[in-house]
Structure formats: structure tokens, C-alpha cells
């Protein structure tokens, strides 16, 4: 048997163990990088040497360097991150909404309503009193202002969320471009069946980040990932990107509480124009849209119903009475919604505290206003203009609104916590499976070092053997 | 099962963060004194807090109304006591002048005293409290707008001396109750004024003053009935005032139970969480430091 094959065997071993050392080093320096998937060298036996009389082992070859990942965990994690971002964005927005109605100290809407009814009570105690009438009008103005402020703040929150969609869509489109580019690079590198591990990590990180912005699913063909967004829209296919588009003008426009149009998320088809996505779910965009188009308008509708009931009932009572000068009473509140509720009377003498055809000292109308506070409004009482709060009293309705907003906040918190918990659990599983353990890598390092030293010794031994042969010849 | 370094460090961070979040929540509860700081902390409780705050405001308003009613009715009672005394004196004069022989001058002096009593009872009927008429639906005092016509006024009609409001002022004292705090002056003092005017006329005309006694008795009866009625209404107001006080206590207690924090329990938990954090941090330090890096000699 010739000695030269042994050099080849040793050389392959040195090369393989050097690669193992390098890969362990690569793992060690990435030990704390989120999203990094550990790599390992897969060694395989070299093809045996067919020598006369025997097949002889030829040492070791490097088959490939593979990433240790579990596709099932990665898929679940992508979905969990999307849900978590959706729930987190909704929670943050609803917390803002809740803060707007966080009036547990007797202030806010409840405070201004109580103060208004209290002023009516004072007016009933002294119906001819100009100071009491002035206070009554001032409290009415406070109440109207409180409704306008709440409506304006709801509109501002809705607009702020709408503005944030711009940033989300821009980031999503940037990531779509990155993923398409990485598709091309990975395909080019893996065409000879080598795994482009680190590029795949980069693409996976981009996909994970994209999932926190918009709900996606993915599948891989020929090393290239296809990204499918809401409504089955193909966002990335090989190197082709369909960017998300925000549109405010295409009919039917989506009107915001502030009167300006809101953005709809969609895409531009090949022929131009705009196609809206009807079911925007997942990622922060999903959370934003749910709060912007669902929760905020629902609260605004409740606010409008309350403002409408107060306006209708108070006006019905006052117009049935007479003012300080014996004239028929006028409506106190004007406007059509919470956002434009206003006070129509400026002269305190025009407040109709007295019942019709009685006298300025009469307080029956003011007493009717006081009684309004305890009256269930079910839409069937003409003396209060058939005002309808579904059978609730005014404060009962406010209490229900605050409770409902509390439920919204509680549900949003619970949902976000559950989603974050699931994501953390999956992150943990991923880290356990794909993360780097320094202990493990150090042992690998030690083993590779010893193997390298052994291969080097083999070279030395073979050299010594050649030297011995040479000595025999000489 | 394998454990990666990233897994260890993120778990440590996650667990310590969870403890910090709980510590922050407890700290907020301790410093605010409330366990319910936002509606989502307890949506049902938040609704109850809004209702309780509103009830406390209403009760405060009801207390103002009862204070007002108590003052108005109390003033009426005092005024009606004066009116009773006036009628008692008038009856004494009528009885005295009917039982003896008096000169014209003496009868005239008695008539003058009765006229003064008439002026006094009219003034009583025109009494005001804080600028508002006691016997004219609480209407504002306006110069020249007295509810009872001055007996010295040429237009004075003893049969119709009252020109004030025919309304009655009612006050909403809460709890679905209204209390009337005024009565028409004509109803309370009309008979008294007519009886006094009649007695004065009899004294001046020299007719038997004893004939005025039945009307004086009736007038005294009217005032007595009104005083009894005022007394009944004062009792209702006092009862409502006591009820308001009880409701305020009960509502405040309910509010505190719903919203207030159990400070002893929270401070105890806060101390436990802080201790847990220190232990977790120390354990994390030891765990993260344990590595083959320190042991292997490569």
C-alpha cells in the first residue's frame, strides 16, 4: 500500500476539523443574536480506496454545513408573532381610548352631567335667580364642551392610528423588497445544493418582522419563499413584489370621525387603480384597522347617542315651559352629534324654569330637568322628546359606556398577554432547538481541536514512516 | 432537552421583567390608594364607581335642597308663631271690649291697636328670607311687589288682601321626594286679615266686638293647621336629611370597597415581589456565570 493516500486522508481530516472549528466559532460569536440559528458541520465518510485485496477507508469528507431549525416551530412562530403584534397594537390603541374615558374620580362626562343636573336643581330652588340661571347656562356649556372634546379626541386618536398606517405600510414594503432580493441571492447560492444558511437567517428575520406588521403565510419553492398576505394577496413571489398601497380617494371613501377620509389598505393591480383588502388581519396593521374602524366608531356612536338623548330630552322639557318673561321656552342645546353639541341660549332670562302659563316664580320645569337624571329613557316618553338610551338613565348609560370601554381594555390586555405568552413559549422552544449553547460549542471546539491535533499527528507519523523508508533506501 | 444561552438570558430578562411589571402595578396601587385605576382593571367595578360618584354628587345636591327647605319652613314656623300671638292679642281685645263699658275714646284706642295688629300681620305675610317671599311661592322681593296689600293703602280690600303668587314652591330633596316649602299667603293669613279688619271696623263703629270672635277663632285655626302642616314637612325634610347622611356613608363605603386598595395586603405583596426580584436576580447572576468557558483549558 502506498503512503501517499494517508497524506490525503490526513489533509481531508485537517480540513474538515478546521471547518468544524470555524463553524463552532461562528456559532459562538452569534450566541446572543436574536433569530440566529446554530449551524453544524455534517461529516461523511470519504469514498473508500479500492486497493488490491481490500476496500480501505479514505477518512472523512464535509457533506455540508446545515442550520438546525424546526420548520414547524418556525411556522408557528411566524403566526404567533403576527397575532402578538396585532393584539399588541390593538391593546396600545385601546389603552389610549381607555385613558380618554378614565374618569373614575367623578370628572369627565359624568362630572359635567352631574354638574348640569345640579345646576338645574339650584335653578329649581330659585327659579327667578339670575345667578342660578347663569350658572345653569355655564354648566350646559361645560357639558356641550365636554362632549365636543370627547368627540374631537376620538377623532384625533382615529387619525393618529390612520397616520401610523403610513409608517407600517412603508416598513412592510421595504421588507417585501428585502425578501425578494434575498430570494434571488439564496437561489443563486443554493443552485449547487449548498445551503445559504446566513442568508436564510436574514430572510427569516425579515419575514418575522413582516409578520409583526401584516398577517402573512409563506411557502418555499426552489429555495425561494412566496409570501401571501391578507385576502390571499401574493406579496412576494420569487423576485416579484406586490407592494401594499394606502388609498383615501377611491370610492367608496372611508370617512373618519374628523370628517376627513381614512386610508384603506390595498394594492395596485397590473392595470392600475386600487383594490382594497377587505379582511386586514394580523400584524400591527390588523390591530390598528380593528381599533380605527371598529372600536373607536362604536364608542363614538355611543357618545353620539348619549349627546342626542340629552339634547332631545332637555330641549323637550324646556320648550314645554316658559321663561322668566313669560315667553315660550326655547331649545337649550343645538347640534346634531356629540362633536357639534352647542348651547343655543345666551340670555339667562330665556331659560324656561317655569311650567307654561304659571309665572316666573314657578319651578316645575326646572324640577322636570332634575327628575330627568333618574328617568329611564326608552324612547317612548314624549315629555322628554322620546329620547332613547335603551331604557337606561343618563348616568346609567355613562356608567355602561365606561364599563364597556373597560371590557374592551381588559379583553385587549388579555388577548395581548395570551398572544405574547404563546410567542414567548414558541421563542423559548425555538431557542432551545436552534439557539447556541456555549457549553455545547466549547465541547465541539475541544473535540475538533483534538481531532485536528490527531490528524496533524497522523501527518507527522506518516512523514516519520517515509523518513524510515528513505533511511532504508539510503 | 437542550438549553441555549440565548434562551437562558431571555428567560431571565422575561421573568425579571414580569416581576418588575407586577411591582409597578402594586406601587401604583399603594401610591394612589386605589386598586382600580382604569376601567380595564375591573370593568364592572368601574361602572359601579361612576354610578357611586354620581350618587354622591346627587346626595350633595339633595343636602343643599334639604338645607334650603329646612330654612324656609323654619322661617315660616317662626312667622306663623308671630301671627298666632297677634291673633291671641286680638281675641283678648275683642273679649275685653265686649265685656265692659268703654268710652268712645277707649274703643278708638282699641281700634287703633287692632289696626296696628292688622299692619303687623300683613307685614308678617310679606316676610322674606334671603330676598324671597315666604308666602308667595318664594318669589323674589321686588319693591312695590308685596304679596299682601298694605292696610293703609286706599285699595286695601280685607276680603282679598292677597295679590301674590298662586303657585307653591316645591323642592326636590331626592329619593323621589318633593317637599312643598310654601303655601299661598291667602290660604294661611287671608282669614286672619279679614277677621282683624272686621274687629277694627266693629270697634270703630261701636258694634259688638264679640261678634268678631268666631272669625278670629277660625283664623287662629287656619294658622294652627298650617303650622302643623309645616311641622310635618319639617319632619319629612329632617328624615330625608338623616337618610342622605346614611346614604352618603353607605355609598362612600361601597365606593371605597369597590375602588379602594387594601394597603396592608398590597404592601405585603410588594415586599414579597421585591424580595422575589432580588432572589431571582441573584440566582440569574449565578446561573449565567456558570459556563464551561471558565473550566475548559483549550
- What is the element string of chain A, with H for helices and E for strands? HEEEEHHHHEEEEEEEEEHEEEEHEEHH
Radius of gyration of chain B: 39 Å
* Mean pLDDT over the residues of chain B: 92
Unreliable residue runs of chain B: none
- The Cα radius of gyration of chain A reads 37 Å
**Morphology of chain B:** rod-shaped
Total number of helical segments of chain A?
A: 9
User: How can the largest sheet of chain A be summarized?
Assistant: 4 strands, antiparallel
Greatest interface: A-B, 75 and 58 residues
- Report the end-to-end length of chain B measured between terminal Cα atoms: 26 Å
* Proportion of residues in extended strands of chain A: 5-15%
Portion of residues within helices of chain B: 55-70%
Taken from the alpha-carbon principal axes, the silhouette of chain A is rod-shaped
Termini separation of chain A comes to 21 Å
Structure description:
The complex is a heterodimer of chains A (474) and B (298). In chain A, helix 3 runs antiparallel to helix 8 (394-434). Chain A has nine helices and 19 strands. In chain A, strands 5-6-7-8 form a four-stranded antiparallel beta sheet. A three-stranded antiparallel beta sheet of chain A has the order 9-12-13, with helices on one face. In chain A, strands 1-4 form a two-stranded antiparallel sheet. Chain A is α+β, with helices and mostly antiparallel strands. In chain A, strand 6 (224-228) and strand 7 (234-237) form a beta hairpin. Helix content of chain A is 58%, strand content 14%. Chain B has 298 residues and is mostly helical. Helix content of chain B is 68%, strand content 4%. Chain B contains six helices and four strands, in the order αααββββααα. Chain B has helices at 5-32, 43-99, 104-125, 185-205, 213-259, 263-289, and strands at residues 128-129, 132-133, 170-174, 177-180. In chain B, strand 3 (170-174) and strand 4 form a beta hairpin. The two termini of chain B are 26 Å apart. The mean pLDDT of chain B is 92.
Amino acid at each position: 500500500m502506498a503512503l501517499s493516500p494517508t497524506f490525503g486522508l490526513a489533509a481531508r481530516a485537517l480540513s474538515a476539523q478546521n471547518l468544524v472549528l470555524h463553524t463552532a466559532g461562528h456559532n459562538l460569536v452569534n450566541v446572543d443574536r436574536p433569530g440566529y440559528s446554530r449551524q453544524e458541520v455534517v461529516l461523511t465518510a470519504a469514498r473508500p480506496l479500492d486497493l488490491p485485496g481490500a476496500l480501505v477507508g479514505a477518512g472523512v469528507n464535509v457533506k455540508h454545513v446545515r442550520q438546525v431549525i424546526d420548520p414547524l416551530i418556525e411556522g408557528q412562530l411566524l403566526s404567533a408573532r403576527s397575532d402578538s403584534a396585532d393584539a399588541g397594537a390593538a391593546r396600545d390603541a385601546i389603552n389610549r381610548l381607555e385613558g380618554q374615558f378614565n374618569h373614575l374620580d367623578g370628572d369627565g362626562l359624568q362630572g359635567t352631567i352631574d354638574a348640569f343636573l345640579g345646576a338645574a336643581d339650584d335653578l329649581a330652588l330659585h327659579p327667578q335667580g339670575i345667578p342660578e340661571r347663569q350658572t345653569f347656562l355655564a354648566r350646559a356649556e361645560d357639558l356641550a364642551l365636554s362632549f365636543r372634546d370627547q368627540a374631537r379626541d376620538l377623532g384625533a386618536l382615529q387619525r393618529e392610528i390612520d397616520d401610523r398606517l403610513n409608517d407600517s405600510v412603508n416598513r412592510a414594503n421595504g421588507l417585501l423588497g428585502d425578501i425578494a432580493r434575498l430570494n434571488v441571492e439564496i437561489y443563486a447560492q443554493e443552485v449547487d445544493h449548498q445551503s445559504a444558511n446566513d442568508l436564510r437567517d436574514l430572510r427569516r428575520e425579515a419575514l418575522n418582522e413582516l409578520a409583526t406588521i401584516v398577517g402573512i403565510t409563506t411557502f418555499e419553492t426552489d429555495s425561494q419563499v412566496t409570501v401571501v398576505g391578507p385576502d390571499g394577496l401574493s406579496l412576494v413571489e420569487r423576485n416579484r413584489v406586490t407592494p401594499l398601497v394606502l388609498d383615501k380617494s377611491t370610492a367608496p371613501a372611508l370617512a373618519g370621525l374628523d370628517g376627513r377620509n381614512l386610508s384603506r389598505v390595498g394594492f395596485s393591480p397590473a392595470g392600475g387603480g386600487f383594490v382594497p383588502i377587505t379582511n386586514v388581519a394580523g400584524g400591527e396593521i390588523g390591530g390598528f384597522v380593528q381599533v380605527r374602524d371598529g372600536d373607536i366608531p362604536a364608542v363614538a356612536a355611543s357618545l353620539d347617542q348619549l349627546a342626542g338623548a340629552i339634547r332631545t330630552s332637555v330641549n323637550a322639557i324646556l320648550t314645554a315651559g316658559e321663561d322668566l318673561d313669560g315667553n315660550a321656552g326655547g331649545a337649550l342645546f343645538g347640534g346634531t352629534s356629540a362633536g357639534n353639541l352647542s348651547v343655543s341660549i345666551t340670555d339667562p332670562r330665556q331659560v324656561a324654569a317655569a311650567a307654561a302659563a304659571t309665572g316666573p316664580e314657578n319651578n316645575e320645569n326646572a324640577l322636570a330637568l332634575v327628575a330627568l337624571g333618574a328617568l329611564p329613557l326608552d324612547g317612548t316618553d314624549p315629555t322628554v322628546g322620546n329620547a332613547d338610551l335603551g331604557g337606561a338613565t343618563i348616568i346609567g348609560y355613562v356608567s355602561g359606556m365606561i364599563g364597556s370601554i373597560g371590557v374592551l381594555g381588559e379583553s385587549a390586555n388579555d388577548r395581548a398577554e395570551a398572544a405574547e405568552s404563546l410567542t414567548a413559549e414558541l421563542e423559548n422552544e425555538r431557542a432551545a432547538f436552534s439557539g447556541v449553547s456555549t457549553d455545547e460549542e466549547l465541547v465541539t471546539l475541544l473535540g475538533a481541536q483534538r481531532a485536528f491535533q490527531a490528524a496533524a499527528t497522523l501527518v507527522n507519523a506518516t512523514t516519520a514512516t517515509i523518513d524510515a523508508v528513505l533511511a532504508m533506501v539510503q | 432537552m437542550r438549553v441555549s444561552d440565548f434562551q437562558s438570558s431571555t428567560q431571565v430578562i422575561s421573568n425579571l421583567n414580569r416581576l418588575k411589571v407586577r411591582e409597578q402595578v402594586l406601587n401604583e396601587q399603594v401610591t394612589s390608594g386605589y386598586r382600580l385605576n382604569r376601567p380595564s382593571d375591573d370593568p364592572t367595578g368601574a361602572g359601579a364607581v361612576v354610578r357611586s360618584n354620581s350618587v354622591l354628587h346627587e346626595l350633595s345636591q339633595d343636602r343643599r335642597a334639604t338645607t334650603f327647605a329646612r330654612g324656609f319652613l323654619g322661617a315660616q314656623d317662626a312667622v306663623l308663631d308671630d301671627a298666632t300671638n297677634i291673633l291671641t292679642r286680638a281675641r283678648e281685645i275683642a273679649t275685653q271690649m265686649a265685656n265692659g263699658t268703654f268710652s268712645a275714646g277707649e274703643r278708638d284706642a282699641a281700634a287703633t291697636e287692632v289696626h296696628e295688629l292688622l299692619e303687623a300681620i300683613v307685614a308678617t305675610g310679606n316676610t322674606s328670607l334671603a330676598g324671597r317671599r315666604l308666602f308667595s311661592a318664594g318669589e323674589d322681593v321686588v319693591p312695590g311687589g308685596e304679596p299682601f296689600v298694605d292696610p293703609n293703602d286706599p285699595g286695601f280690600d280685607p276680603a282679598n288682601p292677597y295679590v301674590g303668587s298662586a303657585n307653591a314652591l316645591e323642592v326636590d330633596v331626592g329619593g323621589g321626594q318633593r317637599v312643598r316649602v310654601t303655601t299661598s299667603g291667602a290660604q294661611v293669613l287671608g282669614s286672619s286679615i279679614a277677621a282683624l279688619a272686621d274687629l277694627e271696623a266693629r270697634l270703630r263703629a261701636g258694634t259688638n266686638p264679640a261678634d268678631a270672635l268666631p272669625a278670629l277663632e277660625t283664623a287662629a285655626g287656619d294658622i294652627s293647621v298650617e303650622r302643623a302642616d309645616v311641622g310635618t314637612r319639617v319632619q319629612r325634610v329632617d328624615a330625608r336629611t338623616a337618610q342622605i347622611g346614611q346614604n352618603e356613608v353607605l355609598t362612600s363605603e361601597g365606593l371605597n370597597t369597590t375602588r379602594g386598595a387594601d394597603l396592608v395586603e398590597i404592601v405585603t405583596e410588594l415586599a414579597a415581589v421585591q424580595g422575589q426580584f432580588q432572589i431571582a436576580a441573584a440566582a440569574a447572576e449565578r446561573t449565567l456565570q456558570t459556563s464551561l468557558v471558565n473550566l475548559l483549558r483549550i
